[in-house]
Design brief:
The chain is of the alpha/beta class and 282 residues long. The protein folds into 2 domains: 2-132, NAD(P)-binding Rossmann-like Domain (Rossmann fold, 3-Layer(aba) Sandwich), CATH 3.40.50; 138-163 and 193-251 and 267-279, Alpha-Beta Complex (UDP-galactose 4-epimerase, domain 1). The protein is built from 11 helices and 11 strands.
Length: 282
C-alpha cells in the first residue's frame, strides 16, 4: 500500500513523509514543483497541483490506497474524483479549529478549511479530519526575525491563551491513522500538553536562549500596521480578534496525541530547544 503525502514541503507533510519512510512504508510525496522536494531515503516524488490535477493525478495516485491531504485554496473536487477512481480507500485531512471555533468559522481562514472539508465529505472517501491547536512553528513565523534582530518581541494581546503543539506529534498521529484503523474517527482534536499565554511562550524562548526577551505590547491598530504586507489584512484581523477573545480563558488541552501515539504530547519548550539556532542572531 502506497501512501501519498500532499504538501510534502510543509512543516507537517515533510515530517510525515520522513516518519513513514523511516518505518519502511511505501510513500510518495507531492508538490506543485517536485524538484523542490527534499525526500528521505525510500520516498518517491510526484508533481501535483491539487486544484488543477490533470493527467498528473493518475501518476501521483498510482497504487495509492491512503492520502494525507494538505488544505489548499481553490477547488479540489477533481483531485478527489481522481483519488476515488484510483482506488484510494482512506484520507487524512489536515484542517484547523478555525473551521468550527466561534469568531473564526465564518471568517477567511475558517471558510477556506470548511470548503476543503465539504469537498472531502462529498467525495465519499472514508476520512478523518485533524484539528491541531496553535502550531509551535508559529513562534518561528511570527517572532524569530524580531528576536534575531532586536532581542525583543512586539505583539498585541500578549495575554492570549494558546496550547502549542509540536509538528512531530501531528505527523505521528497522521502516520498512525494512515497505517492502521484503530483511531479512524470522523475527527481528532490535537493539542500540546500545556496552555501558555503568548508572553509566556516568548519567555520560554528566552529561557532556552539564556536571555531575557522583553515583550512590547501593541494595540490592535499598531499590530495591523506592523503586519501590513506580510499577510492579507482580513487574515491578520481574524488572528488578532481570536487572540483578544482568548484573554482570560484557558486554551483547551486534549490527550489525543498520547492516546494515539502512546507517548505524551511534546512540549513547546522541546520544539524551541530543537530549533534554538533559528532564534539566534546570524
Amino acid at each position: 500500500m502506497t501512501i501519498l503525502v500532499t504538501g510534502a514541503r510543509g512543516n507537517v507533510g515533510s515530517r510525515l513523509l520522513t516518519a513513514l519512510a523511516t518505518a519502511g512504508r511505501p510513500v510518495r510525496g507531492s508538490a506543485r514543483d517536485a524538484t523542490t522536494l527534499r525526500l528521505p531515503a525510500g520516498a518517491e516524488a510526484a508533481e501535483l497541483d491539487l486544484t488543477d490535477p490533470g493527467p498528473a493525478a493518475a501518476d501521483a495516485l498510482r497504487g495509492v490506497e491512503a492520502v494525507f491531504l494538505y488544505p489548499v485554496r481553490g477547488p479540489i473536487d477533481g483531485f478527489l474524483e481522481a483519488a476515488a477512481k484510483a482506488g484510494v480507500r482512506y484520507l487524512v485531512l489536515l484542517s484547523s479549529p478555525s473551521a468550527y471555533e466561534a469568531g473564526e468559522f465564518a471568517r477567511p481562514i475558517g471558510l477556506v478549511h470548511r470548503a476543503v472539508e465539504r469537498a472531502v465529505a462529498s467525495s465519499g472517501l472514508q476520512h478523518t479530519v485533524l484539528y491541531p491547536s496553535w502550531l509551535a512553528t508559529n513562534a518561528q513565523r511570527d517572532w524569530a526575525d524580531q528576536i534575531r534582530t532586536t532581542g525583543r518581541v512586539a505583539m498585541a494581546f500578549g495575554d492570549a491563551s494558546v496550547t502549542p503543539i509540536h509538528p512531530d506529534d501531528i505527523a505521528q498521529v497522521a502516520a498512525d491513522l494512515l497505517t492502521r484503523d484503530t483511531f479512524r474517527a470522523r475527527m481528532q482534536i490535537l493539542t500540546g500538553p500545556q496552555p501558555l499565554r503568548l508572553r509566556e511562550a516568548v519567555a520560554t524562548i528566552g529561557d532556552v536562549l539564556g536571555v531575557e526577551l522583553p515583550v512590547d505590547d501593541l494595540t490592535r491598530d499598531q499590530a495591523l500596521e506592523r503586519e501590513q504586507g506580510r499577510m492579507p489584512r482580513p487574515i491578520v484581523e481574524t488572528l488578532l480578534d481570536v487572540a483578544a477573545a482568548s484573554i482570560g480563558q484557558t486554551a483547551p488541552v486534549t490527550n489525543t496525541v498520547e492516546r494515539i501515539t502512546g507517548h505524551p504530547a511534546r512540549s513547546f519548550r522541546s520544539w524551541i530547544e530543537t530549533h534554538r539556532t533559528d532564534f539566534l542572531p546570524s
